[in-house]
Amino acid sequence: MQNNSRWHYLETAEDVAQAACRQILNAATSAISERGKFKLVLAGGGTPEKVYRLLAESNADWANWHIYYGDERCLPADHQDRNSLMASRVLLDKVAIPANQIFTMPAELGPEVAADRYKLDVAKAGTFDMVLLGMGEDGHTASLFPGHQHQQDELVHAVYNSPKPPPERVSISARALSNTRELIFLITGANKQEAVNLWRSGADLPVATIEPENPIDIYIDSDAFKP
User: Fold this and answer.
1) Of 3, 128, 142, 164, most Cβ neighbours within 10 A?
2) In this structure, are residues 70 and 142 in contact, taking their beta carbons and an 8 Å threshold?
3) Would the pTM of this model clear 0.85, i.e. be above it?
4) Per-residue pLDDT for the chain (227 aa), expressed as one digit of tens each?
5) H or E segment to which residue 38 belongs
6) DSSP string covering 143-184, please?
């Protein structure tokens, strides 16, 4: 487990979403005040979706937000299982972020081409202001899965043989995800208990490979953590 982690224990998934939303909005205000823009990496999944719905109802300086994705499934651009489609539906279509500041992974082109193109966006972004991540019941995060080997110096990986469908994906690397001023893990649901316990005991899981310089914030509900 990362040494520089702050665990926030909350009762419900809704509480997790509200706490994360507050931290994101505060980070955006600070980043725009200090550097003129807010570079945010989005996660897929049910708990992030709750966060995005709350953000969509909030007031923010949307014109200075820049949006990236931690990973994407290699599916048609309009497929309902795309992370980008969910984020657009619940957040991005409802707020005034300029279209040229939303950097969608072209995963419909296949893992290699998409990774090759997206690494240019990640390189240009440099240090992110905030990265949002979830965790699967196997300890994976983004599309970084247990047992998969990737070149450590890559910014974006082409992913094959995902244990969860679809098998082909694109993922920002652990190295690039760690290059952020703030990082939030959103963890909810009883099916995460075993992975959480393994993570806390120091197991070699993908979630443990994300190690930014600043402390990470882990928001977790009572279903996912049973002491």
Assistant:
1) 142
2) yes
3) yes
4) 667 899 999 999 999 999 999 999 999 999 999 999 999 999 999 899 999 999 999 999 999 999 999 999 999 999 999 999 999 999 999 999 999 999 999 999 999 999 999 999 999 999 999 999 999 999 999 999 999 999 889 999 999 999 989 999 999 999 999 999 999 999 999 999 999 999 999 999 999 999 999 999 999 999 999 87
5) strand 38-42
6) TB-TT----TT-SEEEE-S-SSSSS-EEEE-HHHHTSEEEEE
